[in-house]
Amino acid sequence: AVARACKEQGFAQFDKVLVSPYIRAQQTWQEISAYFSAKSIETCEDITPYGQSEHVFDFASALIEVEQLDSLLFVSHLPLVGYLT
């Protein structure tokens, strides 16, 4: 439902998607990829539930700057995503 609503609001394509290596996140991306497209999709070992939020934030910030991304989607887990918001 959230993916469909995002698509309806114009959030249908991302420059890059980073997906946790954990099975549930991989399955989630498989399901929501029907609603979203991405120029680049990568599995990222650092975005697991207990990844270091400061490190992930710094990595994402650098990635956005270096690759000049307009949009970046994380497919990850709590509690990490809670710390990043």
UniProtKB/TrEMBL annotation:
<dbReference type="InterPro" id="IPR013078">
    <property type="entry name" value="His_Pase_superF_clade-1"/>
</dbReference>
<dbReference type="InterPro" id="IPR029033">
    <property type="entry name" value="His_PPase_superfam"/>
</dbReference>
<protein>
    <submittedName>
        <fullName>Phosphohistidine phosphatase SixA</fullName>
    </submittedName>
</protein>
